[in-house]
Sequence to fold (522 residues):
Amino acid sequence: MRWCRFQNGDQPSYGIIEGDNVIEVSGIPWGEHSRTSNSQPLESVKLLAPVIPPTFYAAGINFREHVTEMAHARGEEPSFPPAADVGYRANNALTGHGSPIIVPKDATEVFQYEGELVAVIGRQCKNVSEAEALDYVFGYTIGNDVSERTWQRGDRTLWRAKNTDTFKPMGPWIETEGVDPENCEVSISLNGRFVSSYNMSGTIFGVREFISRMSRYLTLVPGDMLWMGTDGAPENMKDGDVCDIAIEGIGTLSNPVQWEK
Amino acid sequence: MRWCRFQNGDQPSYGIIEGDNVIEVSGIPWGEHSRTSNSQPLESVKLLAPVIPPTFYAAGINFREHVTEMAHARGEEPSFPPAADVGYRANNALTGHGSPIIVPKDATEVFQYEGELVAVIGRQCKNVSEAEALDYVFGYTIGNDVSERTWQRGDRTLWRAKNTDTFKPMGPWIETEGVDPENCEVSISLNGRFVSSYNMSGTIFGVREFISRMSRYLTLVPGDMLWMGTDGAPENMKDGDVCDIAIEGIGTLSNPVQWEK
Fold:
């Protein structure tokens, strides 16, 4: 099943996508809910980030080949994270499929996409094993961990490098069935030109390892989400570019880039 | 006016504190709301963290004397942050006045409080000047940025060092009047014994500098909050200790420490 959030008049609503239509649902996807009689063509609705999480978790550096390539470029031996130490992103930055990534005037040209698988939690969990961790996932969606690299290197934290408004496009929807988070292909295109792809089998720590380790210290609740990190070396995005991130079994998240004048 | 959140049967409710009573309020403090006829003695209610923010901002290292002392202890010259680069904490860790700080079995004895002033945003803002920044603050409360220092040094991020469940006590309420965020005294006691105090005049960047700089890149929304960092060298907290943080014009946040057996 595909769950989305969309602009329904002046309110956001959850919806289920069936064929070419969005059926408005009252209530919440991971709790009590019921279908309404409101159905709208998918192509006519403005999709929003499919969830605004209580806590927004992000894996950060999480691919073996990516770590190795970066280390070799610096003439060093790679050093892998010893544990699934999760990081954070911020809700203010979330935006939906089709909405523009708006770049502040003072950003530099080292402005890049990072295509990522996103796991959305469906049930409260604490102290879960790796074997049972995926049972607590409601479904999967796509995130673009947009990053301004000059700020990322120069600032004390990642706050504006990663969390400026609109720097976290997510969507187009949450797919609850048929996604294999440990073996699915992630493909990135710029302006319709394929630029790179990687498989989720290349993670250092997978969704189950993160959820299990996180849940030893903290309670995950429905609607929390975990962005899984990215592989490969991204290209820069320019004003007017359109960045598409496709994940096998989910769909394609597409966002135009719009530099502030 | 003092706003709180409290456990009202099986639901959380906002309330206004008048004298020794909590008046339940329907709606939200920074939007439409109305008083109800439900009044309960303050001493009989369980206070919750006074807000669950859309985004939880934290200043981190933000006091000149603190930076200087730490640098001198390492035999180095102090290096001050050049800009108000904000960081983050996580909502899962929030807990209210009076609730226990629960310490995982595998935590080390270097387990410490950090008493902090917290500013809660009341109105949406983007691109505000330092002169007008404080107009967007709804009120002030108290936070204890509880930290496990071994994890803080060893892990790749601050996730469990700072954000294990119950590591972010906050409250007891939000005070909307009479707090001077640039000149108020913060005092910390352990088991009723005064341990240290500092004044908010010692910040490197104040509330207005943070809000103004943050708002150049991101939209602050009602309920967002900013923890302002701490000064001084904290002591360790042991099983059974009670940590009190008092801020002039607000009140005292008090929480017992309970080590998991």
Notes: The CA atoms of residues 68 and 78 of chain B lie 5 Å apart. The first helix of chain B runs from residue 64 to 73.
